[in-house]
Amino acid sequence: MKNVSFHRYVISLICVAILSGGGVYIWQKSTAATQSPQNQPTVTTSNELEKVQTLFDQIRANYYQEVDEDVLVEGALKGMTDALGDPYTTYLSESAANELDQSLSSSFEGIGATLTLVNDYPEVAQAPIKNSPAEKNGLRLNDRILKVDGKETKGLSLTEVVNNIRGKKGTTVKLTIQREKETFDVSITRDTIPVDTVHTDLDSEKKIGKIEITTFGESTASELKEGIESLRKKGAKSFILDVRQNPGGLLDQVQIMASMFLEDGKTIVKFTDDRGVISETKASAALDEGFKVTEPVVVLVDGGSASAAEIFAAALQESADIPVVGTETFGKGTVQNVKELGDNSELKMTVMKWLTPNEEWVNEQGVMPDHQADFPEYAYLAPLPRDKELKEGQSSEAVDRLNQFLSALGYRTTGDTFDQTTVSAVQAVQQKAELEVTGKVNAETAQAIEKAVTDQLKQEDHAYLKAVELLSK
């Protein structure tokens, strides 16, 4: 597992496992040329491409081993975009294009189970999606998937496992499941699984509607409208919009959503290229169909809020004086167009920069919140290891993280040594979680500790608490 923060790991786990895609982007998709006349590409002469063809022919004819021509072509195409030095401009092979498309789709075809890796095996990370094939076939939390269609899963990446389980609606996948001491096979018929990008909850005491927006997918604007209408019916008088760890998404969706919170005529975003400002988008009924949110609102952001999430936060901050709470955002100020190349591959290319309503370019700087607030430091520690046991007498960075997690839970642990105090704290956690009380940290105990820490983080979400304070004035 990469050395990601525990906070980021917890928040992004579901998206990574279910969608197996994502990234930092704002994009529009086209299947035909959409350039204005001044942006039409120049015609490359045959002489300019002659060296490319010559190199291809020389490799194909004279390389000492067999050459896969498709691999050569793919490499040449990727090299052309890499030469631009722009991390957001890239050639997408068919599989990469599918992954990007699925990451913003309102649904996917699969079984509806969220997975994580434990000791090199995929396990069901939470209860299956309601009414999904996984739920109907009895999959449970912590079920370990040993095989997919007879193929061993141990050592595979999470993306590889997810891609093997996914497939066309109506087709069947056979999973070999280990549940405690029992091993059995289950055949599951894949179906269309809806992907919710907006999650709502109500603080009934304070009448605050909590809205988490995980990405800007193809149906996010309609989900947001439905969520707000539902919260209003339940009594919500104000809203907290949480776009923390939101990596971005579709430009049309963020423009519709921002328009809901702005007076008509107010600027949402401006666009520029090397000639200067070329266009801007303003709030209007043409975007939001007259649906407006006039209740008090606060927006939550962090370093994982990027691209479309930054457009959203900046628009509300600068054009509606809506307070933004959290930490400095990611800082991605460019827009990509995705063009199909005719063989299921795609070109994702930066076509312009975007500016805030006040014409600030946030690239590599981010949107600054009006009120700084963050999770406690332990939220940014890496997760505990799953591939080795931690026990008394050991000293390591992993033990140091363990002691910090236990300290956050109220135990008097400190330092990077697994001492008797650590043993006692681990035993207490195991007892509460109804695990075997050993005083050692295996994968199950690590998961129990992290679950307890996740619950604790909900009580120490300083950005959310600040938002509540602002809305309660």
From TrEMBL:
The keyword Transmembrane helix applies. The chain crosses the membrane at residues 9-27. Keywords: Hydrolase, Membrane, Protease, Serine protease, Transmembrane, Transmembrane helix. One of its GO terms (molecular function) is serine-type peptidase activity. SMART domains: PDZ (SM00228), TSPc (SM00245). CDD domains: cpPDZ_CPP-like, Peptidase_S41_CPP. Residues 97-166 form the PDZ domain. Pfam families: CtpB_N-like (PF22694), PDZ_2 (PF13180), Peptidase_S41 (PF03572), PG_binding_1 (PF01471). GO terms for biological process: proteolysis. InterPro entries: ClpP/crotonase-like_dom_sf, CtpA/B_N, PDZ, PDZ_sf, Peptidase_S41A, Peptidoglycan-bd-like, PGBD-like_sf, PGBDSf. It comes from the Bacteria. Belongs to the peptidase S41A family. NCBIfam families: prc. This is S41 family peptidase.
